[in-house]
Structure formats: structure tokens, C-alpha cells
Amino acid sequence: MNSIGFVPTMGYLHEGHLSLVRAARQYCDRVVVSIFVNPTQFEPGEDFKRYPRDEERDRKMLEGLGVDEIWCPTVFDIYPEGFVNAERIEPPDALTSVLCGRDRPHHFSGVATVVKRLFEHVQPTDVYFGQKDFQQTRVVDWLIDRYFKGIRLHVLPTVREADGLAMSSRNVHLSGEERKHAVLLYQTLSEVKKRFESGERRVSVLLEAFEVLQNDPLMEVIYAEILEANYLKSISIVDRSAVVFGAVRMGKTRLIDNVELFL
Q1: Taking Cα atoms as reference points, which of 149, 91, 134, 140 lies closest to residue 118?
Q2: What count of other Cβ atoms lies within 10 Å of the Cβ of residue 54?
Q3: H/E stretch holding 176
Q4: Residue 262 CB contacts under 8 Å (≥ 6 apart), including other chains
Q5: pLDDT value at residue 113
Q6: What is the pLDDT of residue 69?
Q7: What pLDDT, on the 0 to 100 scale, is given for residue 26?
Q8: In this structure, are residues 131 and 155 in contact, taking their beta carbons and an 8 Å threshold?
Q9: Rounded distance, CA 240 to CA 78, Å?
């Protein structure tokens, strides 16, 4: 059976997305990229209408990458019953009540709902996601185990700007001054990793590195946590593979990032 590699996106592509496409092209017989800004994963008052969109730009970026199909469904294509009336997929609270799910309580049910419908349409053998959205990858892993046991999930490393900022479609909304400060998020995560690699294992001590963000006048820290890697469980000592997560708000823009801590 021919393999089908699928890269679901919300468009306004950047090098992070393209790295997923290249990986799919390298290992799969057929490659499908979807571009769909999913309304069910935005909370009321969030940036659904502001989310950057430029389909023509995206198509040009995908030229020459060997994509067999660029699928740009409408909201009606995905939610013929109306997205407000869609029956939502509810992942386990353990995966969705922490980190981004704490202040975005409907986000991951929206993600699971749309991803299930996308997978049902494309029927992929392999799917590709980026590590920047680590919590999302855990939800997708659960979804695959529940509904699509034959699909292989590939999580690729976060692609970063030259100064370390994680690439994100939302970065376009940062002002010049905010962009200069935004790199502090990755620098702080890297400092946590440095302290970890120097032998520190106490989570409370490792998280003291986030003080620099809390003191930055352009940043509002949404969360700073270290959780075990597979099931996002809380830990007080890093005695197994874990991830340090950070999320900040700069003006109207929300930025997330993470770094793995390997034993």
C-alpha cells in the first residue's frame, strides 16, 4: 500500500511547516498539505479573525516541495452542520487541563475535533507535527490511539529564527520592540536546560530562571512549568524525561515554546 504523508496546517506557512513537508516527502509516496483556520479551537474573543491568512503566498511557498495535493477546505466542508453544532471530541482532562488548556478550556477539544475530520478525509498513513505545539502532539497521539491505530505520528524539532525564537505564524503580529524581547522566552527555557544539565533536578529551583520574564515590562507570563514528557504529569523532581514549557503574552500576541530535558 502506498504511504500518504499528511501535514495539517492553519496556513501562513513558515520554515517550520516546510520542514514537516520535506520530511513527509522524503518518506512517503504521496504528500497532502491542508490549509484550514479551524474556528472550533479558538476561544471566544481570541484572534480567529486576526489570524494571518494568505493562501496565494502559501501555495507559492509549497512550490517545488513535491506536494501532491494542497487541500484548502471551507468551514462548510469540515463542518457541514455548522461548527457551532459540531459534536466535539473530548480528550482526557489529564492532557487538556494543564498548560494551554488551563486558560483555553475549549481549545484542545476543537483541535481533536478538526484533526479527526481531517484524518478521516485524507486517510493518511503518516502525519507530521512540530514540537513547538508539544501539548497538541500529546492530544493527537491520544486521538490516533483512540480512532486511527494504523497512523504513524512524527513529531519534528521546533524550527527557530536565527536568534532562537520559535517560528510561529503569529510572530507577524509582534511589534518591533516586542520582537526584540520575544527571544527571552527561548533564552529562559535554554537557561533551565543549562541548569538541568549542570545537575539541578528540583523543579522549583529550575523554574527560578523565569524571573527574568516576570520582570520584563513587555511580557505577561501565562505559565512556566516542567512536566513529565509522555502524559504531562506534574513532577517536583526531574527523575524521568521531562519538558519545560513557557507561554507569554506580548500585547495581543500569545507565544508558546518548550525544551526537552533528557536524563
Answers
A1: 140
A2: 13
A3: helix 176-197
A4: 241
A5: 98
A6: 98
A7: 98
A8: yes
A9: 40
Give pLDDT, residue 53: 97
Mean pLDDT of 168-179: 97
Amino acid making up residue 224 = A
Q: What residue ranges in the chain does DSSP mark as E strands?
A: 4-9, 30-35, 69-71, 126-130, 152-156, 220-228, 242-250, 253-261
Question: How far apart are alpha carbons 250 and 263 in whole angstroms?
Answer: 33
Domains of the chain: 4-156 (3.40.50.620), 169-261 (3.30.1300.10)
219 grid coordinates: 511580557
Strand 4-9 versus strand 152-156 pairing type: unpaired
Quick check: helix, strand or coil at residue 175?
Answer: coil
Burial of 161 (0-12, 13-18, 19+ CB in 10 A): middle
What would the mean pLDDT of 221-243 be, rounded to a whole number? 97
Closest CA to 216 of 196, 243, 242, 187: 187
pLDDT for residue 151 is more than 80: yes
| Helix axes of 55-62 and 15-27: crossing angle, nearest 10 degrees | 40
- Please report which confidence band the pLDDT of residue 263 belongs to, taking 50, 70 and 90 as the band edges: confident
Residues marked active site are found at 17
**DSSP letters spanning 191-209:** HHHHHHHTT--BHHHHGGG
SS3 category, 29: coil
